[in-house]
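Milestone M4 deliverable, item 7.
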Amino acid sequence: MKLLISNDDGIFSQGVRSLADTLAEAGHEVTVVCPDQERSATGHGLTLHHPIRAEIVESVFHPTVKAWACSGTPADCVKLALWALLDSPPDFVLSGINHGSNLGTDVLYSGTVSAAMEGVIEGIPAIAFSLTSFSSREFQPAATFARSLIAQLAEQPLPELLLLNVNVPAVEQAAIAGVALTRQGVRRYIDVFDKRVDPRGRTYYWLSGELLEEVEQPADELEHVPTDVQAIRDNYITITPLQYNLTSKLGLQRLHNWKFQPKS
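Output delivered:
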């Protein structure tokens, strides 16, 4: 299969190297286009007021992998690859393997998920891969699962255009409990801005905070499906199907009979 890989940890991160090399060794045609430096938590931002540059990167990946370092955001990387760098569309857009989880509502901030979502916006199915630890560097179990998932999707294509958000627990292969199809949970933070003063006497703020994980309560027809936040605690690899359409169907139903006044 023809695969485009991006990320938000940067072109030289271990996670993207593990993913690209594992899939290239499996015989896939792999192209990597990643930011030239880390751009985590950039969401789906695009570069509109500066030129975007891309330079060929050699001697980092498997010999068959074509790679570019891009000056833009993760979404820029995928958009540039699809419209300027590739000679034909890939079968999948992959993002990762991210160093750290992308669970629940964190996907709204995630550059990793946004890179994959750019593929879906362009009509190409996509998968985002994350290792749920900032300290572990054991990316191979996640890369191995990516290889098996791509093989499975080649035999059983997705029923519709989707983004699969995959999180892999940072445990030994033998400790992985299995694979769970999940729904998006909730992760909230107590945001704390640390107020400081620079050497010139000017005040600045450093964003920090404490994670408050809340497992979303069961909802309607999805009540039997565990959340990604819940399943990852139990050492399951989680697969959460995502889409870019954020319209609330329940909201439309409940607001349908409201009488809105066009003028005050």
